[in-house]
Structure formats: C-alpha cells, structure tokens
Write a structure and sequence with these properties.
Helix content: over 70%
Number of strands: 0
Low-confidence stretches: none
Mean pLDDT: 89
Number of helices: 6
Order of helices and strands: HHHHHH
C-alpha cells in the first residue's frame, strides 16, 4: 500500500500569510481573463454582442490572451493544490472541476476554434457558443463550490 507522508505545514504557501492569497488572486484574475476572452467569442457566436466583428476576428484578437491566461491558471492552480493535495483529491467538486476544465480546454481548442474560424450556420454557432459558455460556467461554479464541500 502506498503511504503518503505529506505535512501541509511544510508548504511555503501555508507558512506565509500573503503567499496563498497572492496565488489565489493571480489564479482568479487569470481565469477571469481567459474565460472572458473565450466568452467574447462565445457571445459573438450567439449573435448577442460585438456584431461588427466576425467570430474569427475576435478569436484571432484574443487567442494569445486566452492562452496566457490558461497557462497561468493551470500553473497557479497546481501550486495552490500543493497546500493540501489530499484534501483537493478527495473533494468531489474539485475532481469534477478538473474534469470539466480538461473538457472545456480541449473543446475550446478543437470544435470551438474550428467553428469560430469558419463561416458556420447560425444554428451551429449558437450551439457551439452556448455549450462553451455552459462548460466554462460549470468550471467557475465548481471552483466556488469547492470551498463549501
């Protein structure tokens, strides 16, 4: 049997009063940036905002910021999870959040990207944009619910 001898008290984020909140601020800010840039494209796909631009134009204009945000979010999230990895691992909301995050990232860089770059039918745009927003909102809400479960 694998025995893990990890003491959260030895983690620097748990021993410095500003380190954990700083990483949380970075994590949440970059998540807001990356999901916000994805949402801009989604709202355009839904036809409710930024109609002066095509989804392809918005995707091209925001893709670097989305990528930077996602890289920082994943990195800072892994650092935050080191504060008590077993508590995170055994929390159902956290595990579902990780699953939804993986699905949302894969979806964003495959189907979502392909549809945004093409001249898809309005119905396809609505389904793809709506599904994308639903996935990202579930990641956000699961992150919030982690604290309550």
């Amino acid at each position: 049997m694998l025995q893990i001898n990890y003491d959260p008290a030895t983690n620097p984020l748990n021993n410095n009063e500003w380190a954990f909140p700083l990483f949380e601020c970075i994590h949440i800010s970059m998540f807001a940036m990356s999901v916000g840039t994805i949402a801009l494209v989604d709202f355009r796909l839904l036809g409710v905002a930024l109609r002066k631009y095509s989804p392809a134009q918005l995707l091209k204009a925001t893709s670097l910021w989305t990528l930077i945000g996602l890289v920082v979010v994943v990195t800072s999230g892994m650092v935050i999870a080191t504060t008590d990895p077993l508590a995170y691992y055994y929390n159902g909301a956290f595990r579902y959040k990780m699953l939804m995050l993986l699905i949302a990232i894969v979806y964003n860089y495959t189907i979502h990207r392909r549809v945004a770059m093409s001249q898809a039918a309005p119905a396809v745009n609505i389904v793809v944009g709506g599904l994308s927003l639903a996935m990202w909102m579930s990641v956000v809400f699961l992150g919030i619910f982690y604290a309550f479960t």
